[in-house]
Amino acid sequence: MILERLEVDRAELRQRTGWEVKPEGACRGDVCVPLPADAVTPEGALDARVLAQRLGMPLVSDAEHGLWALGPASVTGRSLDTAVAPELVLPDLDGRPFDLSSLLGRKVVLVAWASW
After folding, report:
1. How far, in Å, are 19, 43, 61 from residue 51 at the CA level?
2. Does residue 41 belong to any structural domain of this protein?
3. The whole model's pTM is what?
4. Total of domains in the chain
């Protein structure tokens, strides 16, 4: 999420990250993380610094432009939420379509590269 201030609207958090604030804390799917009282600002918004710390979300600032970037969450300490890969079809060396799902049950390493 790109933020112009360190207060995050609850509805925007839910819409953009999937995290919903409930009485038990910030929840997404089966995962709920308790939030301390100082997570909520006096105006009722959420403090991005507290969210970043509790949910394992990186929070970086661009002082020159007065912007912050929050997320994505890594509560489990992993960069991926699941180990389930999306359906992926790519051409093989001969140009024929190759379905990644044909390797179901095997360990697969995908290497991606971009020039930028």
Report:
1. 10, 16, 15
2. yes
3. 0.60
4. 1
In this structure, is residue 109 part of a structural domain?
Answer: no
How many CA atoms are closer than 13 Å to the CA of 89, on its beta-carbon side? 4
Give the Cα separation of 53 and 55 in Å (integer): 6
Range of the domain at 16: 2-70
Greatest CA separation found in the chain?
A: 62
Is 16 inside any structural domain? yes
Q: Residue 108 and residue 101: Cα distance in Å, rounded?
A: 10
pLDDT band at 5 (very low <50, low <70, confident <90, very high): very high
Write down the pLDDT at residue 55: 87
Token output for 97: 């379509």
Q: What's the pLDDT band for 109 if we cut at 50, 70, 90?
A: confident
Dist CA 106 CA 97 (whole Å): 19
